[in-house]
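FORM 7B: Structural annotation worksheet

SECTION A. Query
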Amino acid sequence: MSLPGAAIGTNSLERALQLLEMVEKTPGGLRNAEISRRLRIPKSTCSWILARLERRGYLTRDDNTNRYKLGLKAVALAHGALRELGFRSSAEPVLYRIASETGLAAGIGVLEGNHVLIVDRVEAPESPGARHSIHARPRDQREIGRELPAHSTALGKVLLAYLSRDALLACLAEPVLTRRTPKTIVSRADLLVELGKIRRRGYATADEEDARGLRAIGAPIFDFTGAVPAAISLNGSTSAPIWRAPRELIALLTAAAGDISRDARFPFVV
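SECTION B. Predicted structure
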């Protein structure tokens, strides 16, 4: 027999988690009324949850706008989780190097369900090429910890391509693949064909499939078992001059992925 208090506690916990996810995905934050409307809960209940999250540091409220944003406690938890991934210390110098050499932004992502979680990212250096890549994607889509669709990004397609068939079908179980741009692959059959090509050639491309004017390439990072727990990518404006030398760019990225694969100590390595 379940206890009423337990049900209430579970319900409040679910709402608090939904609230945090909602705020994280909304640049500029949200007001109480907006949150209560989206969660379909009374303002009084929403205020109760907000007050406790703010008190514990998971949220912070702007006194001028009354908008709630993620607090430092949530940021600290996120950085702790990223630290446990184990390969960021060896990957970061590689990201800086290839960003400097190409004028593109470099990033690493891992698969979370049917989304890619950006776990590290280095913006392009201050150069003409850097200006292209920095402005190709809005700032709120460039932050570490941001989730992006797997089916429309180079990082995501690489990670999907190296899944087992059962795991891949589970990731693609949702009835609709969201169309991000006119070039997004929204047919499950077409995506499976594309993933097969990616696995054979060892890299993925995404040409304006996730955002207009943005091009990316991605390559797998292997662990000691041969699995692919992470991927690395370069992305920037389609007008960046570096895209005129695709073979050299692909060779540079796959070599960088190989360097990280050899040097990284993943958390499950004994």
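SECTION C. Observations
The chain has two domains: 4-75, 85-263. The CA atoms of residues 116 and 124 lie 21 Å apart.

SECTION D. Sign-off
Analyst initials: ____
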